[in-house]
Amino acid sequence: MTFKRSYFWKKAPFVKILCAFIPGIVVQFYFDVPEQTGWLLFSISLFISCIFSFLPFFNRYKYSFLQGIFLSAIFFCAGMILTRQKDIRNDKRWFGNLYKEGNTHIIILEEPPVEKTRSFKASARTRFIGNTQLAPVKGNIIVYFRKDTTGDKGDRLPLGYGTRILFKKTLQEIRNAGNPGGFDYQRYCLFQGITHQVFLNNSDYLILAAQKESGLKKLIFTSRERILNILRNYINEKELGLAEALLIGYKEDLEQSLVQSYTNTGVVHIIAISGLHLGLIYWLLVLLFKPFGRYVKLKWMRTLLIIAGLWAFSLLAGAQPSILRSAFMFSFIALGENFNRKTSIYNSIAVSAFLLLCIKPFWLWDVGFQLSYSAVLSIIIFMRPIYNWFYFSNKILDFFWKLNAVTLAAQILTLPISIYYFHQFPTFFFLTNFIAVPLSSLILLGEIALCAFGAFPLIAQPLGKMISWLIWFMNSYIERVEDIRFSLWEGLQINTWQVLMLFLFVTCSSLWLMERSKNALKAGLIFLLAFIVIRSYSFFLAGRQRKIIVYNVPQKRAVDLVNGRSYFFVGDSGLVANDFVRNFHLKPARIMLRLERKDQLPGLFIQKDHMIFFGKKILLLDKPFITDRPDIKPVIDLLVISKNPKIYIKKLSAMMEIKLVVFDASVPAWKANYWKRDCDSLNIPWHDVSEDGAFVMSLR
Hints:
Distance between the termini: 53 Å
Number of strands: 24
Structural class: alpha+beta
Number of helices: 24
Strand content: 5-15%
Largest sheet: 9 strands, mixed
Shape: globular
Radius of gyration: 29 Å
Helix content: 40-55%
């Protein structure tokens, strides 16, 4: 057993490096260690490690464990230093350090604007900022253009990649909605180097004549546009969105309902460009350049062409973590074959993860990054034992069983992560993957052929019709499986500690099954018990909770009254009917708090003009307030103002004693500012949901 462990570390040294590098990234992000501290610890660890090389051989061997500790410390500190440097807020030239309201900005669009419902959206790089003198700065922003601002307007240039724009409009800091359990959009943007946003009307900006473009980026965007045009010419409109996503990861034309169907049935990984897609590209490139392998002088050229093809496709598909991981992996495989060497697969995975995290440490928090590496590790560890469960002499049956063995293996380590982020488990993933995985591969090969013959309509038209039919068939199959009762187990909620306990339980159970280790079995049972205890305690806490939640839903009123694991909803009826808005803004909180909707709650009394919830008097106002008893001045514990009612805080305070005012997200900003001034003058506390995030009042 000891020999196996030492052999593993010798064959996969980068696993040990990664185990030190990742904690350094995490510590730096959450604790913001000063730069001087990181460099000091790095220098000390490096100095002590160098001393070991001057020791006699026997002493080096005797104290090798200490040398290992300080080598790990070097990479731990390297992770901290790199994470700090990659955080745009720590850059001295970040525009946020110089920004003042009324500044002039010069930005460069980093991508062609993408059409949204009421605007066009693009990410942009800030180049200069200032008033009379412009200073060069760094940092990215999101720019929204009103739809009529794109295209030719007199002497205006069309907006596209590389366009330089000058404007003076005030930037807005990107903020979260603040709803409990909601998506952390602010952190997501920060990890992309984006901290602010701005909405520009036609008169708010000038397009400068000079343009600054990167030749490589321009080539990528041009190539993507040509591929999209070919697909749009030959594939039916209903199937076009999925075709674009499958081939180059373009998701702007995907229907939200279709993405939800693929998510609910456990095949959303097909839409995300990943190892499955790049594996097919690698197979095609190997096949295409096979003749080069016959000549020794062309062997290196064959390897370089294969690697170049892999990376060209990866960049064309958007360079997401999942495909970059696969690109590194297949590049190592190609190089290994050229040298006729087989390296440890674990070391190759660790190297690819290390290089990706060196490029962008914040990919560690990317869901695709986590799922991608979990799936690969799970397949490597569990695919062969699962495949050995059954033996089929028929090659066709054996092929399909191998596909399903891969699917089952991938679920083992990805399941805890999927439940943690998506709070659901597709119970029929086996059925959907059985059809969707080979079918999507066939569709991808067809799309590559379509792009190759796009200039020949006689070949491209029937090929496009065939691809459209295959996509239609796959979509129909997925949607029918989704309609099956009990196809989705929803409302699952586990926290970070429970995810950790599940991973440790799976690890120990695997060691017990594969190596018959009794100690591993005991440890696995302990971790399983810990998972059950933590989960039971979370249910206990959920059963005792009492809260009032005013959600941040743009232009909507949404209030939940929570008692235990039940909630009573008060808000706009349109939210109940709008699945997307409800799922995005309200559902995460209800899953996190383990809530079920009830028409009545213990402790809730609904009166004519107010509600009483466990002794707290709540008044919801969206129209002028009229009292039946002007001689009585009631105490209002919580006043929630919605929409734009014609009311005056001073008059309300004369009619009632107000302890707290909450302005929900349906209140216009100008009106909220007017009411806030009145509240301040009357010493009434207030909370603006649009600016400060959702309001949560705990009654325990």
